[in-house]
Write a structure and sequence with these properties.
The chain has ten helices and no strands. About 70% of the residues lie in helices and about 0% in strands. The chain has helices spanning about 10-25, 30-35, 40-45, 50-75, 85-95, 100-105, 115-120, 125-135, 140-160, 170-185. It has two domains: about 1-50, Arc Repressor Mutant, subunit A, CATH 1.10.10; about 65-185. By secondary structure, the chain is an all-alpha fold. Helix 4 crosses helix 5 (about 85-95).
Length: about 180
């Protein structure tokens, strides 16, 4: 008799993350997860008290995924050190490359007690590094600068996931620089 495959917590969590990454958080159901993991729903509910608990773990993993993505983008250094430019490029790139995770993290009402600031700052302290950089460059009000740049950055990212943002990266960089220059005083 063939030995049954034991479904582990990691297998369930990996399958759940893959569903959210490729299909979106709204498609993470016990039935869909069981199908993806190759099991019944029983191992899911033996491992997790409820789907909310699993959703929260997947959300935390998505935050880590975004932090790793951001760190990899920072190593590329596509521009000079103007505050919020590389940050904006990474955010827009994330929306383009991982639209379902972007929606889960940045366009959902459910953030499991996390603020947008906490999501953007992440484990890397990215947001605070950009604010400090702006202060060091003499920007009078880095928070105001960020808000003005954020309108473009977040708008471009949202347009990217709907397919309405198709500017080449060089044009995006130019627009980010322009936004910085006009608002850094």
């Amino acid at each position: 008799m063939a030995r049954k495959v034991s479904i582990t917590k990691d297998m369930i969590r990996d399958a759940a993350f893959l569903i959210v990454q490729t299909e979106g958080a709204s498609n993470l159901t016990a039935r869909r997860l069981a199908e993806k993991a190759g099991c019944s729903t029983q191992p899911i509910f033996r491992t997790y008290e409820n789907m909310q608990q699993l959703n929260q773990e997947v959300f935390e993993r998505a935050i880590s995924y975004f932090s790793d993505f951001y760190n990899a983008c920072q190593k590329q250094k596509r521009t000079d050190d103007k505050p919020f430019v590389e940050f904006g490029l990474a955010y827009i790139d994330f929306a383009m490359q991982e639209p379902k995770l972007f929606q889960t993290l940045f366009l959902s009402n459910e953030r499991y007690g996390r603020s947008l600031y906490e999501l953007l700052n992440g484990s890397t302290g990215a947001f605070m590094k950009e604010m400090t950089k702006a202060k060091q460059l003499g920007v009078r009000d880095p928070g105001e600068l960020f808000m003005k740049m954020w309108i473009f950055i977040h708008g471009a990212a949202c347009m990217a996931i709907t397919g309405d943002y198709d500017l080449p990266q060089t044009e995006t960089i130019r627009l980010l620089y322009e936004c910085y220059e006009k608002n850094a005083a």
